[in-house]
Specification:
It is a single chain. This protein is 10% helix and 32% strand. It folds into three domains: 76 residues, Elongation Factor Tu (Ef-tu), domain 3; 157 residues, Sandwich (Jelly Rolls), CATH 2.60.120.1100; 113 residues, no CATH class. The protein has 392 residues and is mainly beta.
Length: 392
């Protein structure tokens, strides 16, 4: 027998509903001590808002705590008296709070515009009451849409490439600007960075991408070079965090140990990817929620060493089995894309019939077990999710 269900539709941008957002505008005003609690708006088209805070430094204006009590045409009544004349028209800062918990409004547009926290990879969706009421004993994750905006090169994640030469006596690290790159664009960008790095001048390196072999770095004067191994980086006192960043960058370019000084101590005049480049920063996104999985008796896990709990969905980003082509002009991960995951075997979450669904937390993590990038680059990856709430 089929049980009735209710849809709980979730939009990651609704995390801004209860976020109090300050909106700042400026007013042209004058004041006198003759009418100490009345300010005058100078010029038309200005919008003084009852309840807004005002700030101006000097000319007898109160230092803090000024609020607008009433607006009558060009006359603005405030709660604190001025102690001096304005001495002419002054530009006063007006600050309004766009949201209150008791009267929530959608702040998604201004939240996106300002890239405000909470960010797309760790947030809570809340409302003044429960998100859904009912005698619910199961929640099914039905469908998820992802706007994938994780760049090919992410800031501080996979943006550092190293070179060593002269039998390991010299080495240099370069930083690649974050952003989306096609394979050819990435080769061009790296070659430009190399050319602008004086310490790499002895190598005269060029970089080219080939659809069959990946990336080839070639020394114009046949100088042997290599990409530093983990052993070399540790010996050079490189931090573990930076080593991980370099290894992720190696993964992007298809570089492995066979490109290092371990296999060729004197280096080679040309180094070609020994693995195929991977332009997709992470092959999947895991979505976690401690709230939704709170009443599960069987706890989620994975094969990683971390074994986190609370997994509600793993979104495989390669689509629905269509072939993913890599050319010089395009590759999966070279541009943003939108995909919908219709879960053939959806997750069924045990819920307590005595509890309404409260605010819901979400964390989005990559294949390394880290919160997905994008907040620093200001490329947020948003999602929409359909939950089926089954009546018991």
């Amino acid at each position: 027998m089929q049980h009735s269900n209710a849809i709980l539709a979730i939009n990651s941008l609704d995390r801004y509903i209860l976020t109090a957002t300050d909106i700042e505008t400026f007013l042209n005003m004058t004041w006198t001590i003759a009418t100490p609690t009345t300010l005058t708006l100078i010029g038309g088209g200005q919008n003084a808002i009852v309840g807004a805070s005002l700030y101006y430094a000097g000319n007898g204006f109160p230092i803090t705590g000024v609020k607008i009590l009433q607006v009558n045409g060009a006359l603005v009544t405030i709660n604190l008296p001025v102690t001096g004349n304005s001495g002419g028209t002054r530009v006063v800062l007006q600050t309004t709070t766009s949201n209150k918990t008791s009267q929530p409004t959608s702040n998604s547009l201004i939240g996106q515009y300002r890239n405000l926290p909470p960010y797309c990879n760790d947030f809570t969706v809340s409302s003044p009451g429960a998100l859904i009421y009912g005698y619910i004993d199961r929640i099914i994750v039905s469908q998820i849409q992802i706007q994938f905006n994780i760049p090919t090169i992410c800031f501080g994640r996979n943006d550092t490439l190293g070179f060593t030469w002269n039998n390991g006596a010299d080495y240099t690290l370069i930083t690649i600007p974050f952003g989306f790159y096609s394979p050819d664009e990435l080769a061009t960008a790296v070659q430009a960075i190399i050319a602008a790095t004086p310490s790499l001048a002895p190598l005269q390196l060029t970089v080219a991408f080939n659809e069959r072999n990946g990336y080839t770095f070639t020394s114009g004067n046949s100088t042997g070079f290599a990409f530093p191994s983990v052993d070399y980086l540790i010996f050079s006192n490189i931090s573990q965090k930076l080593i991980n960043t370099i290894l992720k960058t190696y993964r992007t370019f298809g570089i492995n140990a066979e490109n290092s000084e371990l296999f060729n101590p004197a280096g080679l005049p040309a180094q070609t990817s020994f693995e195929y480049p991977n332009f997709l920063y992470t092959p999947y996104i895991d979505i976690y929620s401690d709230v939704l999985t709170n009443y599960q008796k069987i706890k989620d896990t994975n094969t990683s060493i971390i074994k986190p709990k609370g997994l509600i969905a793993r979104i495989l980003l390669a689509g629905v089995g269509n072939p993913q082509y890599t050319t010089g002009a395009s590759a999966l991960g070279s541009t943003p894309f939108i995909m919908t995951a219709d879960l053939n075997t959806p997750k069924v979450i045990q819920w307590s019939t005595d509890v309404a669904v409260p605010s819901i937390d979400f964390q989005l993590k990559d294949c390394y077990g880290e919160l997905i990038p994008g907040d620093i680059e200001r490329y947020p990856t948003e999602f929409q999710m359909t939950l089926l709430c089954i009546e018991g």
